[in-house]
Amino acid sequence: AFLDLTAPNEIEGMWKGSTILPCAYVPVEDFVQQTLTWIVVHDQSSGTIFRRDSSGDHTLLSEYRDRVSVPKDAPGDVSLHILNLEVSDRGTYTCQVTWRASNNSLITKEIATKVEVVKVAVTKPVIRAGKLGLTVPAGARTSLTCVASGSPPISYRWFRSSPGRKAQLLSSQAELAWDSLRLSDAGMYYCEAENR
């Protein structure tokens, strides 16, 4: 179990969604991570997606640029995060880590995970409505959360409507939060959910 990598055999990701390819090890005191490399093998081709070494993080395949990352401040967690999955992302992903021992010898281990990308039937977002007429005391902390189902990715916008005036955009998050409610916060709020 010494410096062994752990990862699932297979992962199913949602088309246009995001996924995490777990890869982890238990850090050992006398062994310092030198390099981390993520390699992908598609139907006909293979290539290095991501490399972390003493010079920093590098995304080497252009089709993954701005879509992949690996946690920075989590020792032992070298999982690959992929955003906006494409059907062409399916393949076998290999996580490869090299450590340097205190005597300067190198140890390299790798583990592979197969990734499938599933297309879901395209559906419009459906918002699950909360109950109308929420009463909260002034000074309290509260939030409104927009929950929608449908084809990912779903974006959210919160508005406040005022009679006779244009609705005011308040947030582009699923949750609209107040740290301390004021009397002037009373009013009608609504959420919009949107996908492709």
Automatic annotation (TrEMBL):
Family annotation (InterPro entries): Ig-like_dom, Ig-like_dom_sf, Ig-like_fold, Ig_sub, Ig_sub2, Ig_V-set, VSIG4
Gene3D superfamilies cross-referenced by the UniProt entry: Immunoglobulins (2.60.40.10)
Transmembrane segments: none
Domain called Ig-like: residue spans: 21-112, 125-196
GO biological process, one term: negative regulation of macrophage activation
GO terms assigned for molecular function: complement component C3b binding
Annotated SMART domains: IG (SM00409), IGc2 (SM00408), IGv (SM00406)
UniProt name for this protein: VSIG4 protein
Lineage: Eukaryota, Metazoa, Chordata, Craniata, Vertebrata
Gene that encodes the chain: Vsig4_0
